[in-house]
Specification:
The protein is mainly alpha-helical. Helix content is about 75%, strand content about 0%. Helix 4 crosses helix 5, helix 5 runs antiparallel to helix 6 and helix 6 runs antiparallel to helix 7.
Length: about 200
């Protein structure tokens, strides 16, 4: 796959051009780039959480780089993969919609791109914007991705996307509430940061 094509699609997606999902849905060569985009977006979000502790919280917890950047990227990417599978199961089993799993993975991989904006959580004062807004954008892009991959009715798409997103948020939120947010994997640590506005 041509990296310039992938970059062009990401730029278009950043401009909210949702026709990107229709293109990647039908392009079998986009499977690996889509997975890479999801993993790199999680990695950038983890790096943002790490830099948050350095710049905004004025301190770095022990093993923060390993916990939030390396393990966090893996953890968040895996949890996002679980969310994709949940969406697939809801669409196929609950709504009886015929779904091409690879097409769903391709579109949902690109839909993870908003997580990359969490990299900017290190900016003082406005850091909550870059902690919360990327999650809201993630839900929106998930809805568009599922719509493109399945062609299902709008209410089915929204319900499936909400369930997948809820599983993603629930697991990360539970972990952050039962452990020290600074030591939790980035995904959970992000929710710990969001819930603590004392910085």
């Amino acid at each position: 796959m041509d990296p310039n094509v992938v970059i062009n699609r990401l730029v278009r997606l950043a401009k909210l051009d949702t026709t990107v999902f229709d293109e990647v849905r039908d392009d079998a060569n986009e499977l690996i780039p889509a997975i890479v985009i999801a993993v790199v977006s999680a990695l950038l979000a983890g790096l943002g959480a790490f830099m948050f502790w350095k710049a905004v919280a004025a301190g770095t917890p022990d093993s923060a780089f390993v916990n939030q950047v390396i393990l966090g990227a893996i953890f968040m990417a895996v949890m996002y993969g679980v969310a994709v599978l949940v969406v697939y199961v809801v669409m196929a089993q609950l709504f009886k919609v015929q779904v091409d799993l690879q097409a769903l993975v391709r579109t949902m991989g690109y839909a993870a791109f908003p997580l990359a904006f969490s990299l900017l959580m290190f900016i003082p004062i406005v850091w909550p914007v870059f902690a919360i807004v990327p999650l809201a954008l993630l839900l929106v892009t998930m809805i568009y991705a599922v719509q493109s991959a399945t062609g299902a009715e709008s209410n089915q798409v929204v319900i499936a996307s909400l369930i997948g997103f809820a599983v993603f948020v629930l697991v990360l939120g539970l972990i952050s509430s039962t452990s020290d947010a600074a030591k939790a994997p980035m995904g959970a640590g992000l929710f710990g940061i969001i819930s603590d506005f004392n910085f």
